[in-house]
Amino acid sequence: MYSRAILISILAAMASSSVSASFIPIESSDVAAIKETRDIPVDVTPTLNDKRANDDKGKGKDDASASALASAPASVPASAPAAEVESVFGKCVPKMIFQGGLGTRPKTEFTFQSSDPTCSEGQSENSNPNIITSHIRDVVITKCGANEDGIALVITAVKTVEALNDRTQASADAWNKALGLA
User: Fold this and answer.
1) Where does the signal sequence lie (predicted)?
2) Rg for the chain (alpha carbons), in Å?
3) Does residue 158 belong to any structural domain of this protein?
């Protein structure tokens, strides 16, 4: 398909000379549309990749969510029913796993990831638990529909894992325990 500018240039060349037969690739309807000065709608609106746009919606919400820390419980009780956990975190269960062979990595290379499909969307596995916990926090705040208690729990769990400064199963266990998902 030719762009409109090229077609107009070709049409101008055709009008100034009698070499129109040499421009065979142009469809006659396109030439007719240009001659009739009909505008063909062209969408030039810049668009973002949907995933990127959704990720950007959650930026800057940590400050607004931090106010929930004051009224939040320390954690969801380990014996909490699944319905209670679901209502705190919305539609997500932000559990973290530490497993070998995730993604394209060999089975001997252990990395962190969320076991929840919504929480892991847009973030590949990583050997740094802080990257995964930050991503899970952003998703819980923006996409899961978590209530204030759930948001506060996730923010507290992020700080707990950061304080551990550990890249072993202990980080995943601390995360899950802080959220009441152990």
Assistant:
1) 1-21
2) 27
3) yes
Do 143 and 93 fall into the same domain? Answer: yes
Quick check: 77 and 180 in contact, CB under 8 A? Answer: yes
Q: How far is CA 163 from CA 36, 139, 170, in A?
A: 70, 21, 12
- What are 20-54's pLDDT values in tens digits? 444 445 455 555 555 555 555 555 444 444 444 44
Number of folded domains that form the chain: 2
Torsions phi, psi of 110, nearest 5?
-95, 135
- The rounded distance, in Å, linking the Cα atoms of 116 and 156 is 19
Task: Measure Cα distances from 31 to 25, 34, 92, 140 in Å.
Answer: 11, 5, 55, 54
Q: Is residue 43 part of a domain?
A: no
Query: In which domain, by residue range, is 21 found?
Result: 4-35
DSSP 3-state of 77: coil
- The Cα-based distances of 12 to 7, 45, 101, 141 in angstroms read 9, 28, 62, 57
Q: pTM of the prediction?
A: 0.55
